[in-house]
Amino acid sequence: MLYKRSSELFVEANKVIPGGVNSPVRAFKGVGGTPIFVKEAKGAYLYDEDGNRLIDYINSWGPMILGHAYEPVVNAVVEKAKKGTSFGMPTALETEIAQLAVSMVPNIDKIRFVNSGTEACMSAIRLARGYTKRDKIIKFSGCYHGHSDSFLIAAGSGLSTFGMPNSPGVTEGTAKDTLLASYNDIENVKALFEANKNQIAAIIVEPVAGNMGCIPPAKGFLEALRSVCSENGTLLIFDEVMTGFRLAKGGVQELYGIQADIVCFGKVIGGGLPVGAFAAREEIMNHLAPLGPIYQAGTLSGNPLAMAAGYEMLKALNTDPGIFSRLEEKTAYLESGIQKVLTDANVVFTINRVGSMISVHFDANPVYDFTTAKSGDNETFKKFFHGLLKRGIYIAPSAYETWFITDALTYEDLDFTIAAIQETAKEL
Ligand SMILES: *Cc1c(COP(=O)(O)O)cnc(C)c1O
């Protein structure tokens, strides 16, 4: 495959955009080489500026769960655009998508829409602090909750790729209110509660972690977080930006039957447009302005194009629950195919998977937290990435990312992918 045009475009981009990209992980720093510039995409495929076709396992980092340029979404956005793209006034569609989301997700009465997952998590934390009148939060190493200040402390993927455990520009004052715990380590969490009595507003967690590869919660871990929060008057925030509307219609709350106090959404909920949302029981949500004193706002929040895209996406997921079992079956098929060809090739690896989130770690040991996620062999990952890329398979350009399976993938695509992995394994 040739990347001539992509290389030229990257040179031009670097002159006017820092690092040539508008989000760091796109820059291929973790794997080397030139980022691929996309021209268009349809279904399971990306078409780049050099005319290459790639089978896409990233799907815009999750949103395109039904494939690229999914027609009902595209049509709804086109029709809406003709009628005006933003008003800064309420529209009926905002209520419709809110009603639909509330009907799909357990334990929420009200939802507010924002423009990104970052905004959703940032707002959820403010709500939790305002509601509990406490300052501190607990987050887990390797979990990513967007790039707002409170969360840029051991924040997984993008940051791990660049070896920046913290970011300059985050003040010590902010950092001191973020307490760090290890994923899947409940004793660690209990010790933090012991040392910070009546000070912890919230625990924020990716209930299935996806930003250090895919890491499932250990048996009993989420239940234990729920209990410790309830015992201490602390709110449990599920950051379902990645898992929401992907692992089940109602997300991880439904999948594992655990009740969160606040839930954050992004990615799938926008159908590929910039949308995030946070939701909770009425009693909590009513503390938000204009009903309550906790301020949160957005000029483009609830934007008609974004809401049209999100509504069509949620409607599709709501009316065909078979989507989730198809995704499970396709991803399980891919998993067992990869297991077989990598084992046959004597490659040292571990695969983690929950539903349509899957990651391959080049490590013999179980991967269950940030420390074990980081111990994988990065050099092998780079070869794996480039081996797949030259065979027309696009996975995330970082060893710390999950693959997102789309319903647009056929079994033929999966077989093609497994064969490409078999070939690539010979080069590792
Ligand atoms: C992607 C992601 C975010 C941030 O969402 P953006 O839309 O990129 O701001 C937050 N939390 C999790 C779990 C994510 O995967």
From TrEMBL:
<dbReference type="InterPro" id="IPR049704">
    <property type="entry name" value="Aminotrans_3_PPA_site"/>
</dbReference>
<dbReference type="InterPro" id="IPR015422">
    <property type="entry name" value="PyrdxlP-dep_Trfase_small"/>
</dbReference>
<feature type="modified residue" description="N6-(pyridoxal phosphate)lysine">
    <location>
        <position position="267"/>
    </location>
</feature>
<dbReference type="InterPro" id="IPR005814">
    <property type="entry name" value="Aminotrans_3"/>
</dbReference>
<dbReference type="GO" id="GO:0005737">
    <property type="term" value="C:cytoplasm"/>
</dbReference>
<keyword id="KW-0413">Isomerase</keyword>
<dbReference type="GO" id="GO:0006782">
    <property type="term" value="P:protoporphyrinogen IX biosynthetic process"/>
</dbReference>
<comment type="subunit">
    <text>Homodimer.</text>
</comment>
<comment type="similarity">
    <text>Belongs to the class-III pyridoxal-phosphate-dependent aminotransferase family. HemL subfamily.</text>
</comment>
<keyword id="KW-0627">Porphyrin biosynthesis</keyword>
<dbReference type="GO" id="GO:0042286">
    <property type="term" value="F:glutamate-1-semialdehyde 2,1-aminomutase activity"/>
</dbReference>
<keyword id="KW-0663">Pyridoxal phosphate</keyword>
<comment type="pathway">
    <text>Porphyrin-containing compound metabolism; protoporphyrin-IX biosynthesis; 5-aminolevulinate from L-glutamyl-tRNA(Glu): step 2/2.</text>
</comment>
<keyword id="KW-0963">Cytoplasm</keyword>
<dbReference type="GO" id="GO:0008483">
    <property type="term" value="F:transaminase activity"/>
</dbReference>
<protein>
    <recommendedName>
        <fullName>Glutamate-1-semialdehyde 2,1-aminomutase</fullName>
        <ecNumber>5.4.3.8</ecNumber>
    </recommendedName>
</protein>
<dbReference type="InterPro" id="IPR004639">
    <property type="entry name" value="4pyrrol_synth_GluAld_NH2Trfase"/>
</dbReference>
<dbReference type="InterPro" id="IPR015424">
    <property type="entry name" value="PyrdxlP-dep_Trfase"/>
</dbReference>
<dbReference type="GO" id="GO:0030170">
    <property type="term" value="F:pyridoxal phosphate binding"/>
</dbReference>
<dbReference type="InterPro" id="IPR015421">
    <property type="entry name" value="PyrdxlP-dep_Trfase_major"/>
</dbReference>
<dbReference type="Pfam" id="PF00202">
    <property type="entry name" value="Aminotran_3"/>
</dbReference>
